[in-house]
Amino acid sequence: MILVLDNQATNDEIKNLQQRLKFMGFEAIISNENAQKTISLVKGVDKNTDIKGFINLPLVKEILPLKTKFGLANKDAKAQQTVIRIKDKKIGGGHFTVMAGPCAIESRQQILAIAKAVSSNGASILRGGAFKPRTSPYDFQGLGEVGLHYMREAADRYNLLCISEVMNAKDIDLLEKYVDILQIGARNMQNYNLLKAAGQAKKPVFLKRGLSATYNEFLLAAEYILSCGNPNVILCERGIRTFETHSRNTLDIAAVPILRELTHLPIIVDPSHGTGIRNAVAPMANAAMAVCADGIMVEVHTDPDKSVSDAQQAISPTMFADMMRSLRGIAKAVDMTID
Amino acid sequence: MILVLDNQATNDEIKNLQQRLKFMGFEAIISNENAQKTISLVKGVDKNTDIKGFINLPLVKEILPLKTKFGLANKDAKAQQTVIRIKDKKIGGGHFTVMAGPCAIESRQQILAIAKAVSSNGASILRGGAFKPRTSPYDFQGLGEVGLHYMREAADRYNLLCISEVMNAKDIDLLEKYVDILQIGARNMQNYNLLKAAGQAKKPVFLKRGLSATYNEFLLAAEYILSCGNPNVILCERGIRTFETHSRNTLDIAAVPILRELTHLPIIVDPSHGTGIRNAVAPMANAAMAVCADGIMVEVHTDPDKSVSDAQQAISPTMFADMMRSLRGIAKAVDMTID
Amino acid sequence: MILVLDNQATNDEIKNLQQRLKFMGFEAIISNENAQKTISLVKGVDKNTDIKGFINLPLVKEILPLKTKFGLANKDAKAQQTVIRIKDKKIGGGHFTVMAGPCAIESRQQILAIAKAVSSNGASILRGGAFKPRTSPYDFQGLGEVGLHYMREAADRYNLLCISEVMNAKDIDLLEKYVDILQIGARNMQNYNLLKAAGQAKKPVFLKRGLSATYNEFLLAAEYILSCGNPNVILCERGIRTFETHSRNTLDIAAVPILRELTHLPIIVDPSHGTGIRNAVAPMANAAMAVCADGIMVEVHTDPDKSVSDAQQAISPTMFADMMRSLRGIAKAVDMTID
Amino acid sequence: MILVLDNQATNDEIKNLQQRLKFMGFEAIISNENAQKTISLVKGVDKNTDIKGFINLPLVKEILPLKTKFGLANKDAKAQQTVIRIKDKKIGGGHFTVMAGPCAIESRQQILAIAKAVSSNGASILRGGAFKPRTSPYDFQGLGEVGLHYMREAADRYNLLCISEVMNAKDIDLLEKYVDILQIGARNMQNYNLLKAAGQAKKPVFLKRGLSATYNEFLLAAEYILSCGNPNVILCERGIRTFETHSRNTLDIAAVPILRELTHLPIIVDPSHGTGIRNAVAPMANAAMAVCADGIMVEVHTDPDKSVSDAQQAISPTMFADMMRSLRGIAKAVDMTID
Q: What pTM did the predictor assign?
């Protein structure tokens, strides 16, 4: 619900009204879009709310419905795009973040070698799965906590942040001991208990778009996290399921400019899962840069063909280095920073 | 992995071999398809297994790969279709089970009234959500335990079984106190922690197909539950996501005959979520009967337009009664029992 | 555009107004839905029409937009469902029509043998392709006119009507010499020149839904034919393209009840192309009957595995006979006629 | 079919063999992939061909099946990528071609104004529809020949090539009088009569990917044209149909690197139809450049909101100029030429 205010109202008067609404139990966001002063109630309005009553509040001239259901994720909810700062790194705000690493953490040696390779070529965040969601119960399910331990060591040694997937609300505390960013995978994008638990976590959350999630559903999933109190949500476009079978998924690069018009949250692209084809990873990373995404997540392996999972989409350190060179060139053209 | 056996082997010899394999850590299923004696190792074989070594076991003539990864769900794993017996009711085996009730349990009065209406017209299982997965965090999330309490009372009063959705592994114990069947929703079809927990539950599990899950992924999700020890899994086709926007989903009726060739598990059809269109529910229930599904799950509400959720797809008790009459006619034609 | 009329107007007055509108160049349909007298202008209104001027016509009280763009195909455009009569046969109106035959006409012997087999088991229309749309230019493209000649002979000998696909506007005259119904295939559903030419043909047109056509697009394709003057259009649901790869297409059985609410045209189901799986054909034919479709089109071959095209979905005469027995049982239950 | 040759064979011997095969009725392509000399028979092999007989030909050591059915479109069929030269312009080969203009030619003034605007900013080809495929029979169908006449005048005045859609085989001669490239639209991608007729045309053919066409089907459609003798086919990725409804289509940018591995034909991207969203056009044009597509086709209108069709996706001359500036920057980074 949007309360359209008297444009003569002073900032102090509006802040007083906001205070009063918070006291009444509403999340109230002040906005000034198109030179019209408004307060949006993005949380707390339900079927029992007497909407007409708001017209009696001071300053209120008119009551409008919210344009979207994702009030907190909505672009209008903030004056500028969200920038997430972790240690000396930042995500968003014109900076292109490169997250790289193996699909699964396989051993201490493996993650150390890969961390070295990617950090020396410009990655700032190490990725790697310790708890793996696998379609079959009989496939490798990840090393668990020991894997996280190896990953933290590798990240620290090479001055990287690290990110790993959490599949279960009760594992969040464990993950937070080791990683800088919690990843929620595509299959869990509508696992609402996990989203709510992530909303109470201290670390930023990296939320992957579901296989067949619309933009609206994607942003409502982010809204679950935001509405539970965690403002640091990073969106990840990782390919959607279509009729095409040659590639693993159809990477929806247009999601970047389209989501940009809808939300203030950072948007990362995953060209590895997004295509499932090794030779398409670097071109699609280029495309992500060209549309000014806030970064990419790519799978890198020192021996790609021997990856325990998703071998066909992992790139070698050499391919990674070539890709980074190409990204730096495009970054200049589109006025993004990368290093 | 399939061990092809000497056809001269006696039943006792084969059972001994099965015993030995179980001792070695494998789930071993005896089969006799096309007059060829075999043992399928559906669980326990991984990358570290020395596959060639099996040829040295007694009776083994040849080693073949499994045709599918869902060894336990596979049709070949059992001599006949699974029939699940709960109290005096059964699901599967030529019987058409009708599950009916509101989308969400809204009040004691509501669930009692609906239970009365559906039981008097031939439903045997009462459905109703107490924990609701909602796309938006601001929508009605269900009554929780108090709702389950009302539902149990209503089910008992009208001699119905009852089923409700579990969204969270830690809620399974709570649910099992009240309901006869645990439902896992479409959004959680690949929530592997929930699947594993359901695999350790005592009650049967009703697993809904994910919005964009292939048959193979659907059966592998069932395999997660089966491989954790719960043999009582019921599959539910509830519509898939396609390009069509007029209907809520595209109900894939062909999933019934196709899955029938792949698995021994019972298959239920949900025409309410499958179409999202009130007037299409009864015709699609007819279609489910015509392809010999093991039953349907439908949303019934005494005041459909006032449902707190999914109002446009709920049918009235009168429409339900008409639908049941029509189903009884088709049941006779396809030789199914319904009452 | 809908002209809402004074409810006191007499039938004669309304007919006079209709006459006047036709004279002005509009296709004007009289309706009386929900006890409100109206005239719908389904053709002739364009950007240059001065819509406000109509309010000055006699009887007119109000001007409303058409609910859909397919005015002629719209259910409201006719008092009852369209029934198409060809020789002694009819399509629509509670009768279930069975069209059967090979994918492609391969030889005189083949089409004669199949015609005999299907006619003796209750089919009334013989299908078979003489001009085949093939994804690859190097695949068998059909026998052409000689095939049509064989088909006509076979149809006449066994008292069947016959239907064959036309791929090219300039072939319509040729086709009309041999067949009773012109088929337009899924790939040509939006080949507008072909649709317009079919709209000027004398024979009824059997229009297959495009692979990824919405209901709205499907009905607008039918509208092309209707608006060119041919009132005899039969719709065919033949499966849509989805992410599922196990089956050839996803047969959208719900299209039958949904389209029924939108249009007066007959609706046929093709379970052969709709699934691409031999064992799913008969169950899905049952489903089509259960939702009261106006018939089915199935591929039958005396030696299914040797079909020159689409072998995996053709059924044998024996399977066809079994299917027909089953259909007769369900027909009774849903009050349809079949023989 | 691939004939693997004795690697000792001389070029002359191989050319003799090729000659002999052509005489026998086969299209025979010489290749030397991975240092193995081969001849591929991409046309003329059918069910009646005695494949084993080829082993008796001189030089032939082994016979392999073709990896794909699109032998002429296949990357292996040519030593390098196809470059199409028209007058002083070229398409393909590291050059990025910009095709721009209105969706439909509306008037002489309109097309002249737009031609001026786009030519002064670097477009080399003028687009515009004279025959419009419209979903509804009641929508504007285009100006026809008079529109083509205006377009030719505008193109000539501003030193542009021009392209327009042909919907009907019998219109090809007419189109060829006015335009430099014949466009076949997405809806006609499998209109095989039109493809065959385009294969006999003298002008290059611009083939748009069907709404739900796989890469394989797309290349087989191109193969229809190539196999009829026209070697100048340009592929266009223009968005596919998915479940997402916010955008008109999902633009599959990954199609560029993926098709590049499969074919030697030039690949153009259409970000206007591909997204249907004005603000997404320029970013997606950038993405097309970043993956080294051979160009783009965009809809430009001097008064975008007043376009008679597809108004929401047309960009203004100012937006076009901004987009071109950005493209020039990225072109440098990826080593493409654009002017």
A: 0.91
